[in-house]
Amino acid sequence: MTELDIHLDESDLTAALRHDVAAGLAADPKWLPPKWFYDARGSELFEEITRLPEYYPTRAERAILAERAGEIARITDAKTLVELGSGSSEKTRLLLDALLAHGTLGAFVPLDVSVAALREAVDRLTGDYPGLAVHGIVGDLTRHLGTIPRGGGRVVAFLGGTIGNLLPAERAAFLGALRAVLDEGEWLLLGADLVKDPAVLVPAYDDAAGVTAEFNRNVLRVVNRELGADFDVAAFAHVALWNPDEEWIEMRLRAERAMSVTVGELNLAVSFESGEELRTEVSAKFRPAGLAGELAAAGFEPRHWWTDPQSRFGVALARA
Ligand code: AVJ
């Protein structure tokens, strides 16, 4: 039996999408937030991205967790592992195995916006870990942190570098809100991609096989389907660039010709100039000292910091 708490249903999601699309297409420059990439197809494309030769973050983070999971278990004595933005929960198995072997873990609580991804992950984990209570929460990580069950001994994992999708002010608000729902002595395990040579960063977001381009364009398919829009998806080119001042990767979609797009359900018509770019994602990269400072500013005590051998990716363990 699957235990799923649904704090976001289809109609909440559609309302949030309508709001984001109305605001984002009226803005200058136009933008759409990255959370709308992840319908079933988008989630599959992301899984495919994680296997691309150019996309190092998933492999680098997995190497860190494989090496450090036992240590994380000994340091935290976790009774409950919470995972934010859990998606397929694949890397989480490394943590679950170590925490179960350590003998303290009783429950796993994944929280994700995607009902489909969560249901599949919960079903699979329930089958594979019969002694573990698996309690999925369908929710938005910036709005539903308060729904995570209390009871002490929690480790909240936020992996993959997804923290980088939040803008600096959103990040500060998110870390503060997370700290506020944790009790003193509970833990945050945070994965963050690190600043490095743009010759490594840019191809990770602009792969030779074009999978990231399809992932990027997928947001237009989502808007077409969910809000009755008529984006000519093929008329938008994938753009990935490194912003050295902000130290983040930006993904954009560039209109290859002038066009007018209607969004039926919003009674909205928007025009694009030829070459106009719609922003779809910021993926911030971090410096160790900067990240430690942000954690401290939110009321966490950064205790441990691990990187892969090439220092491409970092995992912080911070105490509330
Ligand atoms: C899942 C948000 C961490 O920013 O690297 C992958 C998403 N975007 N390729 C990232 C993504 C383009 C990914 N995160």
Automatic annotation (TrEMBL):
**Pfam families according to UniProt:** Methyltransf_33
Class of enzymatic activity (EC top level): transferase
> Please, which domain of life does this record's source organism belong to?
Bacteria
Q: Does the keyword Glycosyltransferase apply?
A: no
Describe which pathway this protein belongs to, using the record's wording. Amino-acid biosynthesis; ergothioneine biosynthesis
Q: Domain Histidine-specific methyltransferase SAM-dependent: where?
A: 18-319
The residues listed in the UniProt record as binding L-histidine, with positions renumbered to this chain, are 55, 165, 205, 281-283
Q: What is its EC number?
A: 2.1.1.44
Q: Which UniProt keywords apply?
A: Methyltransferase, S-adenosyl-L-methionine, Transferase
Is Phosphoprotein set as a keyword in this record? Answer: no
Positions annotated to bind S-adenosyl-L-methionine:
85, 91, 112, 140-141
Q: Enumerate the catalysed reactions.
A: L-histidine + 3 S-adenosyl-L-methionine = hercynine + 3 S-adenosyl-L-homocysteine + 3 H(+)
Q: Tell me its family.
A: Belongs to the methyltransferase superfamily. EgtD family.
Assembly and binders = Monomer.
Which PANTHER family would you find in this protein's record? ERGOTHIONEINE BIOSYNTHESIS PROTEIN 1 (PTHR43397:SF1)
The UniProt function text for this chain reads: Catalyzes the SAM-dependent triple methylation of the alpha-amino group of histidine to form hercynine, a step in the biosynthesis pathway of ergothioneine.
UniProt protein name: Histidine N-alpha-methyltransferase
